[in-house]
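Hi,

I'm pasting everything inline rather than attaching a file, because the server keeps stripping attachments. The sequence lines come first, and each chain or strand is labelled.
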Amino acid sequence: MDAIRTEHLTKKYNLGWRKGRLLALDQLNLHVREGEVYGLLGPNGSGKSTTLKLVLDLIKPTDGSAWIFDVPCGKVVSRLHVGFLPENPYFYRYLTGAETLEFYGKLCGMKGTPMKKRIDELLELVGLTRARDRRLSGYSKGMLQRIGLAQALIHDPKLLLLDEPTAGVDPIGSKDIRDMILRLKGMGKTVLLSSHLLAQVQDVCDRIGVLNLGQMILEGDVKTLISDQRRLSITVQDLPDAAREGIAEAVRTAGASVVSMEHPQTSLESLFLDALRKDIRGAGQHD
Amino acid sequence: MTDSAVAIPSASRERVGFSLNRVGVIAVNTLTEAVRQKVFNFFLIIGLVFIASASFFAQFTFGEQMKFIKDTCLGVISVISTLIAIVGTAQLLPTEVENRTIYTILAKPVRRFEFLLGKFFGSLFLLVLSVMAMCILFGAVLWIKEQGMIRELSQTYLGESQAAMADAQKQILQVQAEAMDKDLVKAIVVDLAKATLVASVTLLVSTFSTSLVFNVVVPFMVFVAGMLRGTAIEMWGGHKLLMAVSAIVPDFGLFNIADEINLGNVVPWSHVVSIIVYGLVRTVMMVVAAHLIFSQREI
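And the predicted assembly:
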């Protein structure tokens, strides 16, 4: 069962009278498997946030459908096991960290000792135990991001949607969030994250999809995608003598020695930019 | 957090139906937010100052002083409750959308109707608390004035003739009757029903508008139109456009029973109940319309 499945998901925004419509997402077929960390990449305006909003039923699709754990996204029950961290989240600034989690916990039907225990655990997880009684108006951006992650996790969801989880966070905070995602993966959670930070995505994601101008232009396993298939690198061990001799001879002839033979890897950043360059469509999305 | 984590709460399996608990959580949060905003405190303080100052006008006769206090205080409660209903409700949805707090709430298994209702009830809680605060002060002002008048009357007629004493006693009873006027409760309950309806109109407007100014101005115009509705129908009769507007705009003039009460006219409870029922029906219609629009709104 896919954690998230979309079929021909399309979204057009009305731009106003006589201004036509903006095609934000075009026939997206997305499959996020249960237990994986999936990275949704793309430049600004590529349709990443639109995809997340459609999945959460915050906006309605113009065409196509989406499901969470096989439940249509239009149904409230589809969000039963979903946690969401929006981009640059704002919360009720007059509430303390603990009160914020209590508010979201109650919305999820939690109460009493289990909720208090859960709040303590999450504050510990995101490193805000000492700031639990401080109002959010006094939190830094990184702290807000962490309390945002905690509220997304309050009801122990199976699926997490993270929209630019490290936006505006300093490198240390960014690393903390990345480590948290890896821990969540270890706990069997499914994570769909959208991000611009390609190095981070490369570190934490099992699979990625690259969106541009509302279309999926590249998708696949991270390790496979970042392998350079035009070259071959082999690490030789226990090679039969005859073959080894032949290779060694060839290498000696070239004045070197064989160490390994393998596919050299490119960076995810290069792959991403290359994919965008190859996507020659213009910016004219209005229909 | 350990790898075992906390199991998904058992309550989570029941979170698919409409939940008054979630409505309550959102309402309490809305009230807390509103109480901490200075604008409401400002309105409330203005109201309390006006009510408190009403007792300082002493250039009237005993009877007139009581009438003046009641007239002023009921007027202040009416104006302040209407202002709080409009301003308090107008900013509910735009603020949530602007601050993106609505995303984190609706991403949970929360129905949009629960969210809308929670916000509305939070606004009503604020309204009720504000009116209660003004009523308590109103009651205190009346009591202080009553005691002052009785003391003054007693001293004035002290040692006077039997007839004068009887007249003083009569005046004291009149002052007590004025101060303990039970019809004031009717005026306040009806005013609360009116403010609730104003809040529901504002809620409806805020479901399709993102401008705070628009959300304040339009309900205020609807309120004024509703106050003049009866007069307009009397003047222009059954003009089609007027009738169409009348069908949409609530008759806010109906709620104005304070003048009748202050003039000493009897307003029967049956009339009060019929006004409240009218207000509730109209409020429900507004909230349902707001829900129909909000359920389709792109956030």
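Chain A touches chain B through 48 residues (CB under 8 Å).

If the labels don't parse on your end, tell me and I'll reformat.
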